[in-house]
Fold:
Amino acid sequence: MEASFTFSQLLVITPILGACLGFFFRKKPKILMAWLQALAILELILVFILSGFIKAPTSIPLAFIMTLSAALVILGRHLDIKPAYDLFEVLVLTGLGLGFLLNDNHLGSGFLIGVFALLITIQLRTEDFSNRRTRWVSGLYGAAILLIILSFSLTGANKHLVLFLAYATLLPLFPLHGAYISLLNGLSGVLPAFLALYLPALGLYGLLPVLPLLPPGVRQIVLLCAILGVIIASLRSLVQARIPQVLAQTALVFWSILWWSLSHLEINIPASIIFSSAISLALCGLFLASHELKGRYGDLNLDCFGGLVSVMPRFSILFSLLIMAAMGLPFFGVFSGFIALAFSPSMAFSWSFIIILGSWFFASWRFPTLMQKTLFGKPNPGWVYRDLGFREVAALSLILIILLILGIAPYSLLGIEHSVHLSSETMGAALWNR
Amino acid sequence: MPHPILILLFPFLAALLIPLLSSRWGEKVAIIGIFAQTVSLTLSTIIVYDLTQNPPIKITLLPSLATLNPFLGFGLYIDRLSAVMLVLVTGVSLIVHIYSKTYLQQEAGYARFFSLLSLITFALLCLVTSPNLFILFIFWQLIGWLLYLLLAFNTAHHETYRAAFKTLITFRLGDLFFLAGVFLAYHLYGTLDFPLLFEKAATTDITLSLFPGDLFKIKGVTAISLLIFVGAMSKSAQFPLHLWLPDTMFGPTPVSALMHAGIVNSGGFLLNRLAPLYGLSSVSLNLIFILGAFTTFLGASMMLTQNDVKKMLGYSTIAQMGYMIMECGLGAFALAIFHFIAHGLFKASLFLSAGSVIHSTRADPKSPKPSKTAQILSEPIATKDFSRLIWFTGFIITLILPLITLLAAHDVFHIPLSNEAHGAVIFLFFGWVTSSQAIISIYRMNAAASWKVVGAMISALVLITFTYLFAGELFTIFLYPKPGESAFYFETAALPTLLFDFFVIITLIMMTSVWVFLYANARGQHILMPSWVDRLKEKFYVLFMNRLYLDFFYQRLTRNVIQLAQKLDKKYLFWLP
Structure:
């Protein structure tokens, strides 16, 4: 118990302290990058080595994937974008996130409050309060902080309900998804790529023990919200003009699919973790790829791009593979996770399943459209094109390799073999019965 | 015997090696692909021979890991059907590789093309050797994606990648239904392994009700087979998921050849692979027959009204695929395989020839010079010597077979085949339709009085009918060697006798009309029709020329969805980020 406490604090302190020390090199970008990369890799090694001391089995894969994504976004960050505050923020958030994943009760909640507070601060630094996005972030995360504080004084079902609402702002559930979408759309640098993975990982970790304890009626409401989220996000993704907006709306579709599975009688934890990790990694990769474009061309309006396949071949191959992974094609983790979710014993061939399949189709529509608009056609003759460098290629390639591993690795190797059985009431009218 | 995995491994390795060696070898990398396909074809031929004497081959590559993650349960199941498909896929792929080597010279993305070509061959080979429905579905999806990348080879041409996208979206729509079918099969029977699935489906009678209160009951096996059939419809271009096929003509000619000779046949293969499942549901088979017949009619009608040669070929493929699906719907699964092998080979040669013609036309504006046959066809028959003998021979011999078919269908006499009587009638029916087409073509090419022409017509009739009856029968026994298996499918698919008679009579009326029209045309006569018939004819012509306005319908639908999304976004959901 003592050892567990010490090691978990070590994992929390390392990135935060390292980020603070890195601040001294902020005017020397190359040294700073090398320092932060070394720090992220060190943290990754620490998580790997110390995973044996981590008590909660679900926190191991989430901690690992969170640290890994921090290392990857730092590796893939475009050097020309200044200032590099986002790099420090990624590391501090990693430390706080690990604090939440590795500590129980009040201490863990304290770290989560820190995460919310830091995110509000980052948003306020990026855009002022008159901006609608800032109001969403401060409003929802401010409320989440209050709910967590309130949960300290509550017990039983009320406590679980309050915590559920706070976590639902992290793992975006319609209509509590506003902060997530705002952060992905509004922040600069590699933060959107990191947060696309980071926030749902925290939310899922918090929700897994809370969901079985919720009253049955809440699960029905969750199902309804998930279905509404799928429909609204699918439709809204069709009319977005900028790459982050399309990605953010499509992300909501995927998270609503996860919520749909979480609303069922029996939660398949391995499948949920694989699905959420794969979705968030694919989104992280796509946001990182769009960050490379923004770093080069300054804008991410879909109509500006075209013909990148002939001028940026390395980017095109990696981007198309990421699209392939994100739209749920084999052998990547998104497909495996979705199949594992859908084939769980508690799933039935219901109307909600048909809607989920429909949303899968919408994702298949939006992602290739995104690919076509950026890669196909003719390049802009007035632009000077530059393909990805070694670090950027390495970051995106590693994301793809991890997605492949998630797609084909045995669940036991990932350390996730548990499932949660909920109480025994039945779901609503199924489409079929035997 | 060589290990069957090598058949798959060679194209896969070629797909990996080609991009790696392209900077050093340049356009010589095509040889890697050709070599790989040659080896695969040779090994496939050896496997076919081996399977004539031995039972099917079943290999699980990673048996210990299969229990941990379903994705690692990759393996091979090669029965006679798979073996035949292996030869077809590798054969067509080899031809396309050899052709592309010269055809695509100096094109940008040469290595990418060959790598993708080898990769799609690998995916097709994995599809036909899948040991279970899940692995089959995985490669089913991958083929759609790879075909999209191949069709969009010319990434700078808007029409090309627009058509490729349309293909992808249609395939994805089919994939979703397929996935729903796989999902339902797994939840109802608890397995996706073919032999187990078929056994459980045959022994477990499950009825589903679509709505509470036992409304709209449907058999579990019918629901599964229909859902999976929608997947087959998308790949095999069946109405209303057929629109992608004629639009893909902007893609490279070798891709068109591969697509028309190989990929569109995957629907037929799927129905054959799941024949034991379809054989349990007469409702599914009857619906498949109706849809196949309708697609054949539409494909052929639309083909006649197109003014673009490549689009005509596209619609011809749609009609042929409808024909193939129709055969499956009648329980003649092996005949469908027989059909698509024949169709695949002639369509591949047609597309590859079309590519050569396009190349030579670019080089020489006077090319192609009209062939003798084309000159004859372009002349009205009336200008040649009209022969009553030839016309009469054609007309009469076209009417012999339907008479035999009807008599056999009503058990007036028995066709001496080991197959079930119903199967023989089906073979006879398709033999009649095909031989009639051939006889009419012979007549149109050369209607001059000659015993040679009469001989050619009779030979065509005899050859085609006997090919259908005996070769079809032999092929059925080869593919479905279990006693009574094929007979069981024919029985399940059997249409009511009156309905079958109706189909024969309708076809007969159409054939007779063609002969009457040919006669009148040759004599320079005009068949008087009521004015409303002419008006109707015009309307139908415009309707088919515009492809039943389905393109407009889908475009409108897409536009409306986007407009709805815009309205929702601006008016009602403006407060959301």
Remarks:
- Chain A has two domains: 1-214, 215-416.
- Residues 1-214 of chain A form one domain.
